[in-house]
Design a protein that fits this description.
Shape: flat
Strand content: 5-15%
Number of domains: 4
Number of helices: 16
Largest sheet: 5 strands, mixed
Strand order of the largest sheet: 3-2-1-4-5
Distance between the termini: 73 Å
Order of helices and strands: EEEHEHEHHHHHHHHHEEHHHHHEE
Structural class: alpha/beta
Number of strands: 9
Length: 435
């Protein structure tokens, strides 16, 4: 046996904080004053009110603590993390699944705080990404806006279910029953109008060509006063949510003024819009130093395939895993939109769709969009340049593709002669002798 020395500690003076809703258990570990190379620790309990957390900060300052590590327990970690960060401490937030107690080890709040302190002093785990304070403020608004939009969508779906219950087949004729014409009809029905012809005449624009179908769909024979009461409440709720979203849009636009350049960069990505750019900046920030490469960002956002293999066999379906749902929602909407565009990403999406499931192709596009976003945010002077929908065709070997088409025609019984233009003279020559 040879003598070996332990690796030096990542940090000498650390604290481990076990987070609770009403209290936090804190263990400080510092170098021993009596034994060379030894460690000493002390554990105390504090409340989670501002006064108690300030007392915690003073106690950590007395021990000259350099780093404080804590577990991301629900949202209870935020008061302790944000206050200690403001007081000048270097805080590390660990993912809960990575700091679980080892099997067979007793688990108490005191032991958990000591374990977190040991993890911090050894540098065993990397801290989770926590954006700067101004980005966190923006994130609060963008996330609530997304929740309001989801609530509004849910109300619209309930409204359609109510119409089906009342035998009103309006959604079978109008693609969006909450458009201008559809909303006028719904308000009139809720107000007591039951004449199908009068309701159908509220159609506008191209929908005027569906008057007869609308009259059949708007037969109110089964529509009762109870239906009208609930429909009125639903429409009022939708209008209220729409008004709140509009107010949030204005506030978010004001908060995003310092990031106008980055938003303009991201807005140029196919499928993106100003709202998507705002949502993405609120989640990942504008400084890409925390994500050394685009691969790191994609992995953190869970937009990269995750392979689990054991004994030579792959486990599961190589799903990306659970990531940030707000990034997933924003990129998901952008990937669906890009499939309808005549751009490089649109062509890539349609190309992938030919040999893989639709959802898998969308995830591939989401990852590509995230890689592009990382490149743009890493360079303030960068501009997005689209490669064009014919990128793959331009890259492919034209002669090889031409021969493939010729063979396909010959199999159908045709005789094909291939000629290619000479680059210098423009004269068409047999493909075998073309320069």
């Amino acid at each position: 046996m040879e003598e070996v020395e332990d690796e030096p500690l990542f940090c000498d003076r650390v604290a481990g904080i076990d987070i609770g809703k009403a209290t936090v258990m804190v263990t400080v570990r510092v170098p021993s004053e009596t034994r060379k190379g030894g460690r000493q620790q002390e554990t105390r309990e504090f409340g989670t009110t501002r006064r108690e957390l300030l007392a915690l900060a003073d106690w950590l300052r007395c021990w000259q603590v350099e780093k404080a590590g804590m577990e991301s327990t629900s949202d209870y970690w935020k008061p302790a993390y944000f206050l200690l960060e403001r007081e000048g401490f270097d805080c590390l937030l660990y993912h809960a699944s990575q700091v679980k107690a080892l099997p067979g080890r007793p688990k108490t709040d005191k032991l958990d705080s000591a374990w977190l302190a040991k993890v911090t002093e050894r540098g065993s785990l990397a801290g989770s990404f926590v954006p700067p304070e101004e980005i966190r403020r923006l994130r609060t608004h963008t996330r609530y806006r997304r929740r309001l939009v989801q609530m509004r969508t849910a109300q619209k779906e309930r409204c359609e279910k109510l119409l089906e219950d009342a035998h009103l087949k309006l959604s079978s004729v109008i693609s969006d029953i909450h458009g201008v014409s559809g909303r006028d009809m719904l308000r009139a029905i809720a107000a007591g109008e039951r004449n199908p012809r009068v309701l159908a005449e509220m159609a506008r624009g191209v929908m005027r060509g569906k008057i007869r179908r609308l009259e059949e769909a708007l037969d109110c024979s089964f529509f009762t006063g109870e239906h009208a009461f609930i429909l009125t409440m639903m429409l009022d709720s939708i209008d209220q949510l729409t008004a709140q979203v509009a107010v949030l849009d204005e506030k978010i636009a004001e908060m995003c003024e310092p990031y106008e350049r980055q938003i303009a960069q991201l807005d140029a990505i196919p499928g993106f819009g100003v709202t998507t750019a705002q949502d993405l900046i609120a989640e990942i920030g504008t400084g890409m130093s925390v994500f050394p490469t685009a691969g790191h960002l994609a992995s953190w956002a869970r937009q990269a395939p995750r392979v689990a293999e054991s004994a030579g066999k792959r486990k599961g379906k190589n799903a990306t895993g659970r990531g940030n749902p707000y990034i997933g929602g924003a990129l998901g909407e952008a990937s669906v939109s890009v499939g309808r565009t005549q751009t490089f990403l649109g062509a890539k999406y349609r190309r992938l769709n030919t040999h893989m499931p639709k959802k898998k192709a969308q995830v591939a596009i989401m990852r590509t969009q995230l890689v592009i976003a990382h490149a743009l945010l890493s360079d303030p002077a960068a501009e997005y340049q689209d490669l064009g929908p014919d990128y793959y065709e331009r890259r492919a070997d034209a002669r090889r593709r031409a021969r493939g088409h010729a063979r396909a025609l010959e199999r159908l019984g045709y005789k094909v002669t291939l000629q290619a233009p000479d680059p210098e003279t423009g004269e068409y020559l047999p493909i075998a002798t073309a320069s």
